[in-house]
Amino acid sequence: MSAELTDIEADRLWNFPGGIHPPERKELSSGTPLSSLPAAGDYRVPVKQHNGEPGEVCVQIGQQVLAGEPLTKPGMANGLPVHAPTSGTITAIGPARIAHPSGLADLVISIRADGEDNFCELYPVPDYQQLSRTELLDRLRDAGIAGLGGAGFPTDRKLALQRPLDYLIINGVECEPYITADDRLMQEHAAEIVRGTEILLYIAGCSKALIAIEANKPAAIEAFKPLLADHPTIKLRIIPVKYPSGGEKQLIQILTGREVPSRGLPIDIGLVMHNVGTAFAVQDAVDHGRPLIQRVVTVTGENVRKPGNYWVRLGTPVERLLKRCDYAPEPQQPVIMGGPMMGFTLPDLTVPVVKITNCILLPASSELAPAQQEMPCIRCGACSDVCPAELLPQQLQWLAKAKDYDGLEEQNLFDCIECGACAYVCPSEIPLVHYYRKAKAEIRNIARDKASAEIARERFEARQQRLEREKAERLERHRQAAEAREKAQAQAVKAGGDNPQDAVQAAIARAKARKAAQAAAATKAGDKNDGKNDGKSTGDSE
What angle (nearest 5°) sits at the alpha carbon of residue 386, between those of residues 385 and 388? Predict the structure, then answer.
């Protein structure tokens, strides 16, 4: 065993650069047990709830569906399916507003619940080790499981990468203020998470796992300790409190001392990471056959009378969830999906809960200071000091304002995890993350347009090549026909003798004979007709 692996096994922890310590405010919701949200009358299920291409719609308006029944299928682009959150009738399939910072519309399937909540037939696996790795990956894909920590990357695709692994990491850090969804899930369902970890280890072909929990979650830590005594391949790691220690690259650096390369993936350094919610969903899909149709959502903030954590069916409108929690909005009340650092303000409350929705925050005006007027940068360097990715936030902002996309690429803009630490410490109230998100979106659009143009160019060139090929083939056929005619003429000349004039004279003679025969036939036909006409005239005169 290498010295590095020895240190990891010895429970050594490393650190990552930067980071901040904002007020946690987790006590608002962490002490309330999980409860289920009552069924809604209508559900709006976005077709795309993961990182990647959407699935293909496989239902139609007016169709009756059961809870857990697929509404889409993966299709050729390996998109994840979404499932009916309850039994009911498909009432609409079309664009509607979704939970996204842009506030734009996307394809949504609307369902009117019938109140019965009847499930489709489920197919649990009694012993997952009797299935092959490929069969289990197919089950995770068909269950629609994506990373529930926020990125929404399809779990089956992450596990399908074929590379040697040193550790599977289960992320239960949940470092962002206010959010306690993972905390309550770990407190109440630690055994299911450990079971899901075992399944993930089997699928990944890995022998060791680390479950990481931040030190401010003592109840969750205590829930795991007795369980892991019977699982020597799974180790518990307690992480110091610092934001954003729950970021994928940052947590890897804390646990192993390894750094994920720029634009790289954890698997490039022998690691793979999943959220505790994902581990629970994997266990639920394999052991019980249930697809991903619900998740734990934290509802918190001083303007909520019943803060807590709730099992919420995917597709539930946010307004339905807030009514259950008895919220008391202020004038111009912001409703934030996500936490105060990485979340975004919802355009309205009709947007649905989706797979990556971990929190709905309704802060009072005294909790979160309202956004102030942006002022010029004073070049204090505070943003650089706290950046966990060791970027230059000030430089990135200037380049983003100038739309210098090549410069942004050179400055590794896409290494930014949008944690918001830079904006949190900025004395000039510059919304740095806003600039980064906008620049990333524009770069992606440019790349998409460039890819489309490249495809169009390739199609044009392929068409030109096809036309040239067809032209060459046509000319070749003409050449071969000409050669055949010349060959036939040569044979005719040979048959007529050595003198070409003899062949010509023979052809003329044949033509004259044919013409004379035709004239004789015409004359004979005329004489016959004249005889008939004479007889007819005689009869008439009598």
Answer: 115
| Count of domains for the chain | 2
Spatial distance between the Cα atoms of 280 and 187, rounded to a whole number of angstroms: 12
- Any alpha helices (H) in 146-270, and if so which ranges? 155-160, 181-188, 190-204, 218-228, 248-256
Ramachandran quadrant class, 309 (left: phi over 0; alpha: psi -120 to 50; beta: rest): beta
Dump pLDDT digits (tens) for 365-416: 888 877 788 999 999 999 999 999 999 999 999 999 999 999 999 999 999 9
Would you say 18 and 390 are in contact if contact means Cβ atoms under 8 Å apart? yes
Q: Please choose, from the candidates 202, 70, 64, the residue with its C-alpha nearest in 3D space to the C-alpha of residue 144.
A: 70
**Can you give the pTM of this predicted structure?**
0.84
Give the domain range for residue 493: 399-521
pLDDT surpasses 80 at 496: no
For the record, the structure tokens of 423 come out as 């904006």
Handedness of CA 408, 412, 417, 422 (dihedral sign): negative
Tell me if 466 is assigned to some domain: yes
Q: Is residue 84 part of a domain?
A: no
Domain with residue 258: its CATH number is 3.40.50.11540
